[in-house]
Amino acid sequence: MLRGESKVQMKPELITANDVQPPGKGAPVPQVPAIPMPADSRGLALAILAAVAVVFALQWAQTFVVSLLLGILIAYTLNPLVSWLERVRIPRALASLIVMLGVVGTLMLGAYSLRGQTQTIIEQLPAATTKLSAGLARLRSSQQGTMQRMQSAATEVEKATQSASTPSAPKQPATHVVIDDPTFKLGDALWSGSKGAASAMGQAVTVLFLAFFLLVAGDTFKRKLVRLTGPSLSNKKVTVQILDDINDSIQKYLFMLLVTNALVGLLVWAAFAWIGLENAGAWAVAAALLHVIPYIGPGVIAIATAMAAFVQFDSFAMALLVGGASLAIATIVGTLLTTWMTGRIAKMNAAAVFVSLLFWGWLWGIWGVLLSIPIIVIVKVVSQHVEQLQPVAELLGE
Prior knowledge:
Blueprint: H1 41-60, H2 62-87, H3 92-113, H4 115-123, H5 125-165, H6 186-217, H7 220-228, H8 233-275, H9 280-290, H10 296-313, H11 316-346, H12 350-364, H13 366-385, H14 390-396
C-alpha cells in the first residue's frame, strides 16, 4: 500500500451462483443444491420423553383415571333425562337424584328378576365342572389310545431294526421321572376373587357418586372452561364448538351401544330358546352386557355358553353349535351394525379404531378396551378444531 492512500475497509459480499460466470459463452449456469436444515433433535427427544412420561402416569393412575372417565360417560348418558326433568320445573339436584335412583333401581330389579336363573347356573357349577372334566378325560383317553398305538408300532419297528443291526446286549432297567404339577388351592382363588369383587364394588360406588355430582353441576364446568380460554371471542367460540361436538359424539356413541347391545341380547335369547338351552334369559343378559367390551366380551360368552351346552346336552356338537351361534350373532352385529354406526358417528377409519383398542387394552386391560373408542372420539373432535393437531385428525379420519 502506498503512503498517503487511505485505508478502505472492504465489506465482504455474498457470492451467488449467478455471479460466477462460466468460461465459455452460452454455457449453462450451475445450480447450487439446497442444503437441508438439521432437525430439531432436542425438541423431538423432549416430545418422546414427555409421551413416555404421560403413558407411565396414565398406567400408574389407572384406578383414578378410569373411574373419572366412567363417571363422565355415565353423566353424558344420563344428562338428557336430567335436562328434560329440569325443563318441567324440577330442580336439577332433585332431577339428578331421581335419574340416578331410577337407573340403579332398574338394574337391581333386572338382577332380581333373573336371580332364579343365575342361582341355577351357580348351583350347577360343581356338577358342570365334574361333567366337563369327565368329557375332556374321555376325549383325551381316545386321543391317547390312538397315539399309544402309533407309539407302540414305532417302538416295535425300532426294536426290530436295532436287533437286526446290532448284537444283543444286556437290558438296562428303565428310569421313570415323575413331575408333580403345582397344586391348585381353591381357598387362595376364592380369597383373591373376593378381594377383587370388593374392590370392584367400591369403584362402582365411587363412579356412581361422581356421575351424580357431575349431573348436579350441569354446565358449570363448561362455562368455566370457556372463561379459561381468555377474553378472545374466537377462542371462546372454538371452545364451545369443541365441547358441543364432544357432547354430541359421545351421546350418539352411547345410544348406539344401547341399541346394539339390546339387539345382541334379543338375538341371543331367541337363538338359545330355539336350541333349547336352559337359562336362556340369563345368558342373553350376560351377552348384552359383555358385548360392551369389544372382542373380549363375545369370546367369553361364547366359551361360557358352550360349556353350559355341553353340560346340558353332553355333546361336543351341541356345545359348538351354541358357542358358534353366540359368536356369530356378536360378530354380525359388531361387524356390520356397530362398525357402520361408529363410522357415521365418529367418521374414523377402522385401522385407527383397532390401534386404539390395542393401545388402551395394553395400558388398562378390560377397562382400556371399554373406554378406547370414547377416548379416540374425543381426541379426534379436539384435533379437528385445533390447528396444531390437524395431522392427528387427518390420521384418524376416514
